[in-house]
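Q: Joint fold for the lines below.
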Amino acid sequence: MSGPVVTFDKVWKKFRRGERHDSLRDLIPNLARRAFAKPALAELEDQEFWAVKEVSFEVNRGEAVGIIGPNGAGKSTALKLLTRILRPNRGACAVRGRVGALIEVAAGFHPDLTGRENIALQGAIMGMRKQQIADRFDEIVEFSGVSAFIDTQVKRYSSGMQARLGFSVAAHMDPDVLIVDEVLSVGDMSFQAKCLDRMRQQIASGVTVVFVSHNLHAVANLCSRCIVLGGGQLLFDGRPEEGLSVYMRASQTFSARHGTQSRLRVQAATLRRIDGAAASTMPPHTSCELRVVFECLEDTPPASVGIELERTRDLFYCYGSAAEDLGHPLTPFRKGQTYEYVARFRAHLARGHYRLNVNVRDSRAGLFYMFAESVADFSIVEDESYDGVVDIELDVCYDAVVEGRRA
Amino acid sequence: MTALANDIREMLHEQVEYRELLTQMTKRDLLLRYKQTIMGFGWAVFMPLVNTAVFSVIFTRVAPIDTGVPYPLFAFCGLLIWNFSASSLRFAVNSLTSNTNLVTKVYFPREIFPFSAMIVCLVDFAVGSIVLVALMGYYRVIPGATIVFLPVVLLVQVAFTASLSLLLAMANLFFRDVKYLFEVVITVWMFATSVLYPVEILGGRLGVLALLNPMTAIIDAYRAVLFYGRSPFDPPFLLAAAISCLSLLVSWVTFHRAEFKFAENA
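A: Joint structure:
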């Protein structure tokens, strides 16, 4: 088979906001309104909105694509379009070959049936053949780790056990295209690791994977390509590392930290190396300087400016400090004034992509007057291979030890 | 026309592709009934038997009527056939709305829900038929050669029931009042059908109306081949057969075309 396996061609999908009317009582006024109303000029009726707006992409055979985006970006809608649960209003989407969907893996389970009976049912719901289910039954049970309870009614299972059994069925269906939605949040750590392993195996064996997740770590690890959706539109399609920073910028507009008052606003932020060179990529231990210019929109009581460093792929909080912690007094900010904040630091960081957040806060009162996410981001690149967040400049030597004495 | 042909091809293709799911869903419902109730399939026989006993008292002692065969046999046969359709429809009405987690999360042809509900009722029908055969033996009523047409009559009933099942399942998904309306209609409908008495008794305009009712034609056809040794192919039955086939086609295609809206409305 040649050509793309998954095609999304200028897909539009709209939904209705607010309560849905589903009684006959509402039908009559609705029909009356439709009969007497002028034909709608716009394609969007009252209360309707586009959940997906002209999104186009293709996925080729054997590719592993991650779809990320903030809440409301249209990810779930895109998945439902791919799995044929929804149909686009405009445009076309198609998936060639057998589709396996790891979405709500325990959706078909019936609480009164046993694990064994539910495997057969869930398998059939996912489109597996009877023979295929029978052949792989032992593997499914083994993988789920609930073999001791396989003849127990599923309602006696814990929710984790149900999810594990559901995932096991789905993981053994051998599809051409695997569509995955956030299922990695099921089960404990060891089961999640098992799931990731299983997906990695499937990717390695040539299965095309479309993977929707908020787990940026998993996307960065599993996928060779990354699609970023925001507000229903395609914002980015390309390498995962770049996609993640696009995602960061997109989520900025959508997320506001709880209790944050926006009394100040960042106007410009630049990150450079101390020697003035660009700091988008640099080796570990480089000295850098972050300059942030912000204006004060409203008079602000005494506060201090803080900085946070996060690893982009999983938002791991690496470092955080405020000026007051360094002995600077709290200062009030006056409306209309522009302030410049300069922070110098050395990036003792391991390989990866990082971002900086800047805030203005009064820690004692627990108030944030400004919170600006991702004012700057950079990549640390090094040749040696080590894992983690911090570069501790490890130096190792070892000799053979004989009978408690160094030889 | 090609669009219609395409839809029909797609519908049938999907049913073939997902045939194992239909079996599994049916098995699920049968298993559940067996597990959740003490009498299991006994209920399939118990209810029509109780009703038969009650109506036998009414129509042999209070208001005797002539039915050609012993009244209990007449009534049990009518109730059994009627119950197959009525309970199929009763399950079908809720079949999509009670499975919203599946409807909104996983794709497969949605017809599976009302169809599997109907097959479960067909199993009940088969179980009840054993009692019917026993009753016929007891009253020494032997079917004639026209019994060979029994499958045709059953097929017409299945087509008619399936078409209404699809419509009701779909209608209740969009308008949740439908299930209440359904309960009213099904009660009135039973007394407008030759279940417990031949509707000819009604006479007048009401009687003519009752004869146009496809369910009456179907039940009469069953009795014709089971009890009276007559051919089922009289004009009312042929009309019912035509209506059944046409309405199955229309409702299935409608269902198939509306299917993609189900997830949004469930």
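Q: Anything notable?
A: Chain A has a mean pLDDT of 82. The helical segments of chain A are 24-36, 75-82, 115-125, 130-144, 159-171, 189-204, 216-222, 240-254.
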